[in-house]
Amino acid sequence: MKIYLLENEKITEVVGTYKVLTQDTLFTYVESETELSEPFKEGALPQEFLQTQADALNAAKAQKTQELNAACDASIQSFISDALGSMHIYDAKLEDQLNLLGLVGANIDSFFRCAPLTNPLDKQNLPHTKAQLKAVYNDALKTKSEAIFKCGVLKEKVKKASSKEEVLKIVWEEIDGTQP
Fold first, then answer.
1. Count of alpha carbons within 13 Å of 78, Cβ hemisphere only?
2. Angle 160-48-170 (CA atoms, 0-180°, nearest 5)?
3. Phi/psi of residue 30, each to 5°?
4. Minimal CA–CA distance to 60: which of 140, 169, 149, 142?
5. What is the H or E stretch that residue 62 is in?
6. How many distinct helices (H) and strands (E) make up the chain?
7. 2 burial class (0-12, 13-18, 19+ CB within 10 angstroms)?
8. Which long-range contacts (CB under 8 A, 24 or more apart) does 110-119 make?
9. pTM for this one?
């Protein structure tokens, strides 16, 4: 792709296939895959335009990074474990994680809050053995680790993106089941 400039007063004189990128008081700046002849002149985009584009890309990257962090946080608010012999859903907010870590560290049997996957609103404090609590902990850690890895992969794509359009195409749902 080449960049061409065209004096604004000559805009009605031209034909061809090109994409208008920007315009200032003197010139219209275009991009073309094919060679353009007079009155087009090969040139470069104005520095102000390039800076505006760079600023917009950086803003899009920052916004997308915030979106991905929020999606990651949302994805680890709960997790599923079959430690009790059937699938149960467990809360995984920070306090829940600390409580689980404390129970595993204490190496004791205890009640822990969960709900059957088939009825997630039926949360109950159910008895768990030390081994079951350790299995729940491992499932929580696996869920959290996978989400953080996925977020990292997507944020790396954001970092490498060279256009605002590329950034906007990156979504949390893009990668599913990514394993570290």
1. 14
2. 25
3. -130, 165
4. 169
5. helix 47-75
6. 4, 8
7. middle
8. 112/136, 114/81, 114/84, 114/88, 114/89, 114/90, 115/88, 115/89, 116/86, 116/87, 116/88, 116/89, 117/80, 117/86, 117/87, 117/88, 117/89, 118/87
9. 0.77
Taking CB atoms within 8 Å and a gap of at least 24, the contacts of 54-58 are 56/164, 57/161, 57/162, 57/163, 57/164, 57/167
Tokens of 138: 């491992």
**Residue in the block written with tokens 């768990």:** 128
Tens-digit pLDDT profile for the chain (180 aa)? 899 999 999 988 887 788 999 999 999 999 998 888 889 999 999 999 999 999 999 999 999 999 999 999 999 999 999 999 999 999 999 999 999 999 999 999 999 999 999 999 999 999 999 999 999 999 999 999 999 999 999 999 999 999 999 999 999 987 654 444
How far is residue 115 CA from its own chain's centroid?
30
The burial of 21, by beta-carbon neighbours within 10 Å (0-12 exposed, 13-18 middle, 19 or more buried), is given as middle
